């Protein structure tokens, strides 16, 4: 949904659950910016003309993201996510969208979810997902009457968490069987 509350959760609210990783994430920006909008601070760093600043910011940004997507905070994840080219692109895209609130009025996607009436869909969400609060998927499932929310009890945000890949494949298989 890219609501401000979700962005704030991801880049401040969830911090007490990952103090070591959070400390490293905050250490990646100037001290004067640490109490403010961290997305804005990283956005500025990633736009720097100094390539070393951009690399430092991208690596810190991705390290934080990687630490909270899995139920295992030390999960290695997809090797591609460790490559500098990926990290620079990912961090720049995410901060660009979040800095501009995805160019959406706050909450507009949920308020207009009724436009999906009659369109089937499946939202697969890990119950232990700390990167994307479950309340967002829950609220969407209530507003999108023809959408179904599938909760994976043992998963976080990562497709590599227990049960997540299977649930995603089962959902897509249901749609491919209808063709």
Structure characteristics:
single chain; 51% helix; 179 residues; two-stranded parallel ribbon; mainly alpha
Provide a compact summary of the structure.
This protein is mostly helical and 179 residues long. Helix content is 51%, strand content 7%. It is globular and about 50 Å long.
Explain what you see.
This protein has 2 domains: 4-103, no CATH class; 112-177, no CATH class. The mean pLDDT is 94. Strands 1-2 form a two-stranded parallel sheet. Helices cover 51% and strands 7% of the residues. The chain is mostly helical and 179 residues long. Strand 1, helix 7 and strand 2 form a beta-alpha-beta unit. It is built from 8 helices and 2 strands.
Query: What are the segments in which pLDDT stays under 50 over at least 5 consecutive residues?
Result: none
Residue share in helices? Answer: 40-55%
What is the C-alpha radius of gyration, as a whole number of Å? 17 Å
Mean pLDDT: 94
H-E order = HHHHHHEHEH
Strand order of the largest sheet: 1-2
Structure summary, number of beta strands: 2
Domains (count): 2
Report the principal-axis shape. Answer: globular
Largest β sheet strand count, sense and barrel closure: 2 strands, parallel
């Amino acid at each position: 949904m890219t609501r401000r509350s979700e962005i704030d959760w991801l880049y401040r609210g969830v911090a007490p659950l990952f103090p070591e990783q959070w400390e490293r994430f905050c250490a990646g920006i100037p001290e004067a910016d640490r109490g403010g909008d961290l997305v804005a601070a990283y956005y500025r760093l990633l736009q720097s003309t100094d390539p070393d600043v951009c690399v430092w910011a991208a690596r810190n940004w991705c390290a934080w993201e990687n630490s909270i997507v899995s139920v295992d905070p030390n999960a290695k994840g997809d090797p591609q996510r460790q490559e500098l080219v990926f990290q620079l692109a990912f961090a720049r895209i995410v901060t660009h969208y979040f800095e501009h609130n995805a160019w959406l009025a706050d909450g507009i996607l949920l308020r207009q979810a009724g436009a999906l009436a009659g369109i089937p869909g499946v939202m697969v969400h890990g119950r232990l997902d700390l990167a994307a609060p479950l309340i967002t998927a829950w609220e969407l499932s209530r507003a999108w009457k023809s959408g179904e929310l599938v909760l994976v009890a043992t998963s976080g945000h990562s497709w590599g968490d227990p049960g997540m890949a299977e649930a995603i494949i089962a959902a897509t298989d249901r749609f491919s069987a209808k063709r």
